[in-house]
Design goal:
Number of helices of chain A: 9
Structural class of chain B: alpha+beta
Number of domains of chain A: 2
CATH topology of the largest domain in chain B: de novo design (two linked rop proteins)
Structural class of chain A: alpha/beta
Low-confidence stretches of chain B: 569-574, 615-626
Distance between the termini of chain B: 90 Å
Order of helices and strands of chain B: HHHHHEEHHHEEEHHEHEEHEEHEEH
CATH superfamily of the largest domain in chain A: Response regulator
Number of strands of chain A: 5
Number of strands of chain B: 12
CATH topology of the largest domain in chain A: Rossmann fold
CATH class of the largest domain in chain B: Mainly Alpha
Strand content of chain A: 5-15%
Oligomer: heterodimer
Helix content of chain B: 55-70%
Largest interface: A-B, 23 and 25 residues
Mean pLDDT of chain B: 81
CATH architecture of the largest domain in chain A: 3-Layer(aba) Sandwich
Strand order of the largest sheet of chain A: 2-1-3-4-5
Largest sheet of chain A: 5 strands, parallel
Strand order of the largest sheet of chain B: 2-1-5-4-3
Low-confidence stretches of chain A: none
Radius of gyration of chain A: 17 Å
Number of domains of chain B: 5
């Protein structure tokens, strides 16, 4: 409890709602309304989690992400976007994003996500990885779905079902090569 | 006079009859002249000779009577003499009546005088008394000198007449023989002449009869060869003349008809050409083999060919290889699954132009296709407009997402009462906000899905797909919902289904949509069945439920955008875009989607996906390279 969270979003109401929601859950929340401001805050402060909108004035979310990573800051980032594209999702995956949260989302979904991340952070795993992954996939959060499935695979490396699910997620991410790889693995274990 | 063919025939026969009559008359005349000669011969000369002989006989009887008078019964002898004398006179009179010639008349008169003298001499003899020997010897003496001399003279005279008659007889016989000979000779000449004459005349008449027929025959031959001018024709007044008149009239009508048909044909062709040329949109007319019959300037510019040089050019040579050529060739091959119109993209000077292609088959009287009219309508602007509209919708939808998120979160937080407790009314209000924002979110996501599908066909990633695994992936997502809603979800898929040429994710999306609808409209305890079966050229996939069903009148409409079944005001409702998107997807796969109407209970949605054809293996499927 008492973690520091930074919200970088140009929409006032999103900032407000996110702040309220997280504060009610006991987080300490800072916010920035554009990319440059956000990057400055990231470089100048200590945050446990960053919410980053992709479409930002002055400096895009992806650019902020790239610069902070190149500055050696490995803080977990949850990307928020109203314009999900596969290209962007793949780029964000490479930059080590923990979740690709698509607008619109509910407070409930946000809360579930935070709980999962808290659990992971404290070394425990969410109670039902596969269901959580499926839920994420349904909401278009393919990155988190992939992360959760990888986690599930770590616990149960011989499951054809998990390989098949991973193959699907990769295929939805537009990564045909990995999709094929996991699909073949699923065939082997089946 | 001889105006009819009948009378001409009669005339022909009549001339032959005349020749025969002439021959007959000549023969009869000849025969009668011969018979007259022979008759004359018999009646005059022969009878004369006969009578002369009888007179000779009578004279000889008289001489016998004279002898008997001198040597026997004188009385009897005198009587017999008298009898013979009468006989002689009778024949003499007969003979005398027939005499015509002068020299014969002289002979007969001479005979009469000498006979008179002989008879008188017998009178003198009887004046002698033969009982007196002296007188007897005188009488004998008289008889031997005078009377014998008289007899001899008479006989001479008779002989003369006899000879004359005989001469006449012979001369007449020669005459008759000569006449017979002459007539034989005449007839011998006349018969061949008549035969030749008859032959000649019949020839002439036959020629004259047949001349008009020959002429008409020649004319008909000319007509058959296409020459419709009437030329010189029979002008006679007979039946052939009538026939020729009728024929001439028929020719006239034929010629008129041909001219009018040709005229209207030419007119129609000119009209067609003018219409084609006045159309600014590209127009192409093909025959059933795909050769160009007609194209206008716009089309020749589009194809980059010379207008006149491309006539009769095969269409695959005219058009560059691409979507339009593929489409035309598929129509020409008569593929049954070809849509009647289509929008194709043609690259032209770097930019893409879109054309709406409408192909209309040209049918003949027997409903056979003899060609095609291909009309291209430039819809690039429309397409751009549509794209702008799509982009606008997409942008708006995306822009909705951000405020929706705030509403979602705010309502959620209030509902969870984290920011303080609410009373019942407040909770109801917040619930409503939550519900409708959820509705709004569905709308936004479906709008986005639809515009994504519509915006570009290149989004499709066609590959050989297993229908079975698509169904498996799709149904798995609904298993938990099915259990929760107490709906029996079953699949009936044969194990050996062949693969289809499809985009796996799109097909799964369609299945998800159909299943989601089925689940939505099926009550607890109902069932939803997904089945697939192989057909001749495609695979039929069906999603059937036991829900409220679709009224038949909406079976087609529900595939339109924003159509929902009225009067079925249910709590759960889609946005009305899912089926429209599903139709887009299935159509892009060259499949068909429809709603089965004749069901007693629930609804059934079917769609087809074509089986992989040989042509698909080389990756030239047009929708893929679009």
């Amino acid at each position: 409890m008492g973690q520091n969270v930074l919200i970088v979003d140009d929409t006032k109401n999103i900032r407000l709602m996110l702040t309220k929601c997280l504060e009610l859950d006991g987080y300490r929340v800072d916010s920035a309304s554009n990319g440059q401001e956000g990057l400055d805050a990231i470089l100048g402060g200590q945050y446990d989690l960053i919410f980053l909108d992709i479409k930002l004035p002055e400096l895009s979310g992806t650019e902020v992400l790239r610069r902070m990573r190149s500055a050696g800051i490995q803080t977990p980032v949850i990307v928020i976007t109203a314009y999900p594209t596969i290209k962007n999702a793949v780029e964000c995956t490479r930059l080590g994003v923990v979740s690709y949260l698509q607008k619109p989302f509910t407070a409930e979904r946000l809360k579930n996500l935070m709980n999962d991340l808290d659990l992971e952070k404290s070394g425990r795993r969410p109670p039902n990885l596969l269901q959580a992954a499926e839920e994420c996939q349904e909401h278009g959060d393919l990155i988190r779905a992939r992360n959760l499935l990888n986690m599930a695979l770590g616990e149960n490396p011989g499951s054809a079902d998990i390989y098949e699910r991973l193959a699907r997620v990769y295929s939805l991410l537009g990564d045909g090569e990995n999709s094929e790889k996991y699909h073949r693995a699923a065939e082997i274990f089946r | 006079m001889f105006k009819t063919v009948r009378s001409k025939f009669t005339l022909g026969y009549l001339s032959l009859v005349l020749v025969i009559c002439f021959l007959g008359v000549v023969s009869i005349y000849t025969m009668s002249s011969i018979s007259t000669t022979i008759e004359g011969l018999i009646t005059t000369n022969y009878n004369s000779i006969d009578r002369l002989n009888r007179m000779t006989d009578a004279l000889w009887g008289q001489r016998m009577a004279v002898e008997e008078y001198l040597n026997g019964d004188s009385v009897q002898a005198a009587i017999r003499f008298e009898q013979y004398r009468n006989e002689f006179i009778r024949y003499y009179n007969e003979e005398e009546a027939t005499i015509i010639l002068d020299n014969e008349r002289q002979y007969i008169d001479e005979i009469w005088q000498r006979f008179q003298r002989y008879v008188s001499s017998f009178q003198i003899l009887t004046s002698y008394d033969i009982s007196n020997p002296e007188e007897y010897s005188q009488a004998v003496d008289y008889h031997e000198t005078n009377m014998s001399a008289y007899v001899t003279l008479l006989e001479n005279a008779m002989q003369k007449l006899h000879d004359s008659n005989e001469t006449a007889l012979f001369s007449r016989r020669d005459q008759a023989t000569e006449a017979a000979r002459t007539s034989t000779r005449t007839l011998c000449i006349l018969f061949p002449l008549a035969a030749v004459l008859g032959l000649w005349m019949s020839n002439i008449y036959t020629k004259r009869f047949l001349a008009p027929i020959d002429q008409i025959t020649r004319q008909i031959k000319l007509v058959r060869q296409g020459n419709l001018t009437s030329g010189e024709l029979v002008t006679s007044q007979d039946e052939f003349g009538l026939l020729a008149d009728e024929f001439r009239r028929m020719l006239q009508r034929l010629s008129d008809f041909e001219q009018s048909t040709l005229g209207s044909l030419m007119e129609a062709k000119n009209q067609t050409d003018t219409i084609a040329k006045s159309i600014n949109e590209p127009l192409l007319v093909l025959d059933d083999k795909g050769a160009v019959l007609l194209l206008n300037q716009a089309m020749s510019q589009l194809a980059g060919v010379d207008e006149s040089a491309s006539i009769h050019m095969p269409v695959r040579q005219l058009l560059p290889k691409g979507e339009l050529a593929d489409y035309l060739l598929r129509v020409l091959q008569g593929s049954s699954d070809v849509e009647p119109e289509k929008i194709v993209a043609l690259a032209d000077n770097d930019s893409d132009h879109f054309y709406h292609v409408a192909i209309t088959p040209i049918l003949d009287a027997d409903e056979r296709t003899t060609g095609f009219i291909v009309l291209l309508h430039n819809v690039t602007e429309l397409k751009l407009l549509e794209k702008a509209r799509g982009d606008f919708i997409a942008t708006i939808s995306h822009e909705f997402k951000t405020p929706l998120t705030s509403i979602f979160m705010g309502a959620d937080m209030m509902r969870s009462e984290l920011a303080g407790p609410m009373n019942r009314d407040q909770r109801e209000i917040v619930e409503t906000i939550c519900e409708d924002s959820q509705q709004l979110e569905n709308l936004v996501s479906e709008l986005l899905e639809l515009s994504r599908i519509e915006s570009a066909k290149t989004i499709y990633k066609f590959e050989p797909c297993s229908v079975e695994s698509a169904i498996r992936v799709s149904t798995r997502q609904f298993e938990s919902i099915a259990v929760h809603s107490e709906i029996r979800l079953t699949t009936q898929v044969p194990k050996d289904l062949p693969q289809v040429w499809a985009d796996f994710s799109k097909i799964t999306w369609v299945l998800n949509n159909l299943l989601s609808n089925a689940m939505k409209y099926t009550n607890e305890g109902g069932s939803v069945t997904v089945s697939a079966q192989r057909r001749e050229r495609d695979i039929l996939i069906s999603v059937a439920d036991t829900g409220i069903g679709v009224p038949p009148e909406f079976a087609d409409q529900i595939f339109e955008k924003f159509v929902q079944v009225k009067g079925y005001d249910l709590e759960v409702r889609g946005t009305g875009l899912g089926l429209a998107a599903a139709k887009e997807i299935i159509t892009a796969h060259h499949g068909r989607i429809w709603c089965v109407t004749d069901r007693e209970e629930g609804s059934e949605f079917c769609f087809t996906l074509p089986l992989i054809k040989e042509e698909n293996h080389d990756g030239t499927k047009c929708s893929d390279c679009g």
